[in-house]
Amino acid sequence: MKNMKDISTLVFIVDVDANKHQTTQAVKKLCDMDVAKVNTLIRPDGEKKAYV
Q1: What's the CATH fold of domain 11-51?
Q2: d(CA 24, CA 28)
């Protein structure tokens, strides 16, 4: 089982047209932190979620 420190993930609702690079840059600017990876998905209601 993973520790919470190991799986700390933030979830954002982003623009559907935003790509992973743009999402990474926005998170760096807003949260002032390094981003290891970004996973995205488009929800059935049409919104896009980014897991950072």
Answers
A1: Alpha-Beta Plaits (3.30.70)
A2: 6
